[in-house]
Amino acid sequence: MSENATEVRSVEPGRRPAGFTQEQLDWVPWVEPIALADADETQAPLLAGDRGIGPYFRVLARNAEVLAHRSGNDKEIFYGRGGLARAERELAATVTSRHNGCEYCASVHSRFTSALSKRAAEVQRLLDEGNGVRIDERWDAVIDFVDALAANPPRGVPAHIERLRAQGFSDTEIHDLVLSAASFSWANRLMLTLGEPEIPAGRPKSRDISEKF
Questions:
Q1: With pLDDT > 70 as the criterion, what percentage of the chain qualifies?
Q2: Is the dihedral of CA 52, 55, 60, 63 positive or negative?
Q3: What total number of domains does the chain contain?
Q4: For position 106, which CATH number holds?
Q5: Residue at a domain's end among 57, 76, 95
Q6: What are the phi and psi torsion angles at 123 (to 5°)?
Q7: pLDDT (tens digit, 9 = 90+) per residue, 78-96?
Q8: What pLDDT, on a 0 to 100 scale, did the predictor assign at position 203?
Q9: pTM attached to this predicted model
């Protein structure tokens, strides 16, 4: 990056999202990301593929050791074999992001939840109404447990576990919910303190995301 070039800027008021959405958002950093051309031998492998395109991981790559551990955890928590269905891991990420007010993370993981569950309308209700929304017994049990874990201090109690077990969740699946909530409580705080979301330039008027899946 040239000496005068910078990716740090303020988002114009008209391009800030009006609320939680399943539409794609951009993210604008408040901390200067490293340029791909400047990445050292430790940073470069962590930015391979799509990760190096946007600024977020290039900001995190300033601490490559932490990013390496974070990336490994994320891969196992959301793509590990067995345990909780991926759609419900993504639901947990969405609920956590909704609780913490992270519009960017909620947009990404609500899209995953919709695509995997084929329940875009219910996911949109979660975004619109918040974590007090009532959908069905299984999802409500997940939403209430994850929302309680995302609170500061956490409000999770044994009754949450008993309710999940009554819905057929195994201890391994409940453990996966805990990991998903913990992972995104961290991710949300990174997103919220290092930058802000932005509506992409030239995006057409929003439409029902159920048309896309």
A1: 93
A2: positive
A3: 2
A4: 1.20.1290.10
A5: 76
A6: -65, -40
A7: 999 999 999 999 999 999 9
A8: 66
A9: 0.91
